[in-house]
Design brief:
The protein folds into three domains: 143 residues, Tetratricopeptide repeat domain (Serine Threonine Protein Phosphatase 5, Tetratricopeptide repeat, Alpha Horseshoe), CATH 1.25.40.10; 45 residues, no CATH class; 80 residues. It has 16 helices and no strands.
């Protein structure tokens, strides 16, 4: 019996190259793979890869360039390429949503959910459902979509679907927090933290710990909240990686204790760091103004 080995496409695992903290570098890696695609055998994978190149552009607010790539993909779509269709819908929707057009994004995400459900693409279903939660205006609808996504992620055998659990626990936790269901929020944030630790994701571990501390402040467990935030501050200083949200939260905690001088110090540090964040400056004007006032900044 002769065994014929099937050569794996060099594009097969391109998703593993994603670095969401550095979309520009990710784009370079993706583009370097394109010439290696077989025009026939790798047709679907090449189109999937192009959707992700569009995503790297959208993450950098290069929406015209992202849409140009997506226009090209749209011309090549056929019903048999279900994964390509889903990923096209997701990235076109994300591009619309990020450029301030959520009403145009919503029907695309819904269509992606429907195709993913029919084709048993668990990871893509979870992605699309979580995007539906983002574009829904009603808090109850947002919560329901996140719960649907979580149900699939928790029972799926796909590792990529399972990897969504940390993000979904986080999102659901914030919904509970907004509803002032703080104990439920804490439970979700602790689950998110456990997921991040199990996946060895240092940056996400810090975010999850911050979230746990934030809800502990809401529960008036100030000692526990302080312990986490001060430890995060120490860690950030050791790595020369200042975090404005840790500074802001320490300002809030010191304010609750009536330690005004220390509170001002941390609010001022948060303000100076947040001024460098264009998205925050453009979208969080009232919050930034409050931080400036509490930091006693006169400029």
């Amino acid at each position: 019996m002769i065994t014929v080995s099937v050569e794996q496409s060099p594009l097969q695992d391109f998703d593993n190259l994603w670095d969401f903290n550095n979309p520009a570098e990710t784009e370079k890696k993706f583009r370097a793979l394109l010439p290696k695609a077989d025009p026939v055998k790798d047709r679907g994978l090449r189109l999937e890869l192009l959707t992700q190149i569009a995503r790297t552009l959208g993450l950098r607010s290069k929406y015209d360039s992202a849409n140009k790539i997506l226009d090209g993909i749209q011309k090549e779509l056929t019903p048999d390429l279900q994964r390509v269709n889903i990923r096209y819908l997701l990235e076109r929707g994300r591009t619309f949503n990020s450029s301030g057009k959520p009403e145009m994004a919503k029907p695309l995400f819904l269509q992606a959910v429907e195709i993913a459900a029919k084709s048993n693409e668990d990871a893509l279903y979870v992605d699309a459902a979580h995007m539906m939660a983002i574009v829904e205006k009603n808090a109850g609808d947002q919560h329901n979509w996140n719960l649907k996504a979580l149900a699939i992620a928790e029972r799926s055998k796909e590792s990529r679907a399972q990897n969504w659990k940390g993000s979904l626990y986080n999102n659901i936790g914030w919904t509970y927090h907004d509803e002032k269901q703080f104990e439920k929020a804490l439970d979700m944030f602790q689950k998110a933290l456990a997921e991040r630790v199990s996946q060895n994701q240092p940056q996400n571990i810090k975010i999850a710990r911050w979230s746990v501390a934030r809800v502990q402040r809401s529960l008036n467990r100030l000692a526990e909240a302080f312990a986490i935030q001060l430890d995060l501050l120490k860690l950030n200083e050791a790595n020369n990686d200042p975090d404005p949200y840790v500074q802001e939260e320490l300002g809030e905690l010191y304010t609750l204790e009536g330690r005004t001088v220390l509170a001002q110090k941390h609010f001022a540090a948060a303000y100076r760091l947040l001024l460098k964040d264009k998205w925050f400056v453009d979208n969080m004007k009232e919050r930034l103004a409050r931080i400036k006032e509490l930091g006693n900044i006169k400029e």
